[in-house]
Amino acid sequence: MGSSVDIRSVTRDFQTPAGKVSVLKGITCSIAADTMCILRGKSGSGKTTLLNMIGGLDDPSSGQILIDGKSVAGMSSRARENFRRRQMGFVFQSVSLIPSMNAIQNVEFAMRMAGIKDGREKRAAEVLTLVGLSNRMTHMPQEMSGGEQQRVAIARAIAHHPKLILADEPTAELDSAMAAEVARLFKQISEEEHVTIIMTTHDVGLMGAGDQLIELKNGRIEGSEDNE
User: Across the beta sheet with 19-31, what order do the strands follow?
Assistant: First the structure.
């Protein structure tokens, strides 16, 4: 089962030479387990900052973020690192595949880093098949299209059976048709792998791609709705 995420009155301030800048201004929302949430907003709306805090890469200035009732910010550095490595998967705009490894080796390497010792090749083949790359497993990243590379990155993120996937603008460098296909793939993965997915985007065309839409504007929630 995927993780639930509970965000309570979260703020995030940064100190700059010009003074304090408030990026998030009291965010409160909940994301149910085993759902896909679209976190939409223009550049500067605070969506990546919020995603980083959900992932334990940054801490709120005030408020709480609870994952399955646990505060990642309250964990020790080692506990936080282990929690991220075992319970979370990350997909970024830049796929960052290892160029000297083929698709299945890239996925296996990520599983090894997550501490998985047994069944890596079988699981890597399984997730690459799930993302539609059963015939591209031995291809190198430079032999793949941008959309195919992003699919390998998605397979890599789900291979260790995480409970929560955080995807930051994973479709930003893809054309609209491929972006829609990647969003559809995320929805399928959420359902079949029983994982919670939070995906940021500024693409209006992807607003209905998930189970839930949260819109950010100037560090505040502009709107939130569940998609039927």
Answer: 19-31, 5-16, 62-67, 70-71
Give exposure, 112-139, as e/b (b: 16+ Cβ within 10 Å): eebebeeebeebbbebbebbebeebbeb
Q: Angle CA(95)–CA(88)–CA(134) in degrees, nearest 5?
A: 50
* Neighbour tally for 85: CB within 10 Å: 14
Taking the model in full, what pTM does it have? 0.91
pLDDT tens string, the chain, 228 residues long: the values are: 899 999 999 999 999 998 899 999 999 999 999 999 999 999 889 999 999 999 999 999 999 999 999 998 889 999 999 899 889 999 988 888 999 999 999 999 989 988 888 999 999 999 999 999 999 999 999 999 988 999 999 999 999 999 999 999 998 888 888 888 889 999 999 999 999 999 999 888 888 889 999 999 999 998 777 765
Full set of structural domains in the chain with CATH: 5-223 (3.40.50.300)
Two structure tokens written together for 107: 């996925």
Radius of gyration from C-alpha coordinates of the chain:
17
